[in-house]
Amino acid sequence: MALTLASRYVFSICTGALLCGAAGVIRRRRATTHWAAFDLLHYYRAIPTRSRVVIDGNYISTAGVTAGLDGALKVAAMLRGNEVAQEIQLDIEVDE
């Protein structure tokens, strides 16, 4: 059974997904990680998903460090709305 997370959201960047795997967070959840560690996700009974950002319930994972920016903007949109996320994107000059 998948671990129920008490946090509103859990967000992993790059190989942080493997730490979440060791904690049981990604069991039976879609997840991504850096391409060099991607094949390890199945050891944690995750559902490996090749994408820069994967959202499965309250768990958000990103493929690599730069994909972490994309994930952070998605979390900002989830928490504060698209307008705020777009303002942040403009301020940090990220072209998504």
Key terms for this structure?
35% helix, two-stranded parallel ribbon, 3 helices, three-stranded mixed beta sheet, 96 residues, single chain, alpha/beta, Rossmann fold
Question: What is the structure about, briefly put?
Answer:
By secondary structure, the chain is α/β, with parallel strands linked by helices. The protein has one domain (10-92): Class I glutamine amidotransferase (GATase) domain (Rossmann fold, 3-Layer(aba) Sandwich).
Overall shape: it is: globular
Question: CATH H-level name... which superfamily?
Answer: Class I glutamine amidotransferase (GATase) domain
Number of helical regions: 3
SSE pattern, N- to C-terminal? EHEEEEHH
Strand order of the largest sheet: 1-5-4
- Number of spatially distinct domains: 1
| CATH-defined topology | Rossmann fold
